[in-house]
Amino acid sequence: MSGSHEAVERYLADIEQRLPGGAKARADVTDEIRGGLEDALEAARAESDRDVDMVLRQFGEPAALASALAAEIRLRLARRGAWHVAVVLALMGVAWQVYAVAVGTPESMIPAGWQGSVFLLGVEVITSAPVVAQIGALAMITVTSVRILARVAGRVLPALAMLTVLATAAFGAAMLAIMLTAAAAHRAEVIAVGLVCAVGFAVVASGAGRALRNAAAPSLVKDDI
Amino acid sequence: MNPAILKGHLDGMLLAVLEDGPKHGYGVAAELRRLTDGELDLPSGTVYPALHRLERTGQVAGEWSEFGGRRRRTYRLTRAGRRELARHREEWRGFSAMVQHVFEARS
Q1: How far is A148 from chain B (nearest CA, A)?
Q2: How many CB atoms lie within 10 A of CB A200?
Q3: Virtual CA dihedral for B26, B32, B38, B44, nearest 10 degrees?
Q4: CA B56 to CA B37: how far, in whole Å?
Q5: pLDDT tens-digit series, residues A24-59
Q6: Does B56 contact A144 at a Cβ distance shorter than 8 Å?
Q7: N or C: which end of chain A has fewer CB within 10 A?
Q8: Is the Cβ pair B73, A59 closer than 8 Å?
């Protein structure tokens, strides 16, 4: 039986249009289902349109199937975003330690007056926010990967993703505050380092955003079997 | 069959079906139906998200292969999946023995 049967392609298109993620992720899922449908049609020796319809009915409602498949895709996308956050923040942490040892961060960077308070607050946040974001990301990776948590992942993920995004936003704001308030004598140097950090930050922010977008999707909490 | 009874056992049954060797998603669904004499009448499509969940948690590994010009996805048990299957079996034996004990005592 050929998989190019019109009803089969309609069924697959119906599923595909409900799936999140990039074209590749969706094609992977529909290719897999297409293979299964071909097997099912062959096993049932489906020839007529009625046979094909029966096999498709036996396969399940496209909407229900797509929703369960979408939840799995979203959990993986959220996990991938969390990995980006965890890995890039770890690399930035190491790079910062190396920079601090090799170049150093002299006291004279701290500006006078209110700008000094903002600068020091920025330093506080820039050292703690990434740790919070890391914890959020590692917790997301854990709940989406560990078997006994697999069924609750959808329920706790949105809160963890939100925590990670907020910590990431605080990290970005602190970076900006430090760059804007550093003592004039050091400003060029601080901004240069800040711009290098901004590249890493962009990856972290996009990972955290992806994690939240997918974790917060309403279809995520599935009470399926 | 009451679907609520199935809850919590589908994962173990999927792992059991893969114990003999790798299978496609549909092969898993067909084998489940065969082993249960058609009693387990799940929509075949249901196995796909369930297999994806098992894959995400490292209990099965999926792999693409070319088959007659078409891509096919095959699943095999991982070492963690084998351990998990053994746990499912043991848990089920204990549970079913316990339930039977209570039921038989009253019959």
Answers
A1: 9
A2: 16
A3: -30
A4: 30
A5: 989 999 999 999 999 999 888 877 888 899 999 999
A6: yes
A7: C
A8: no
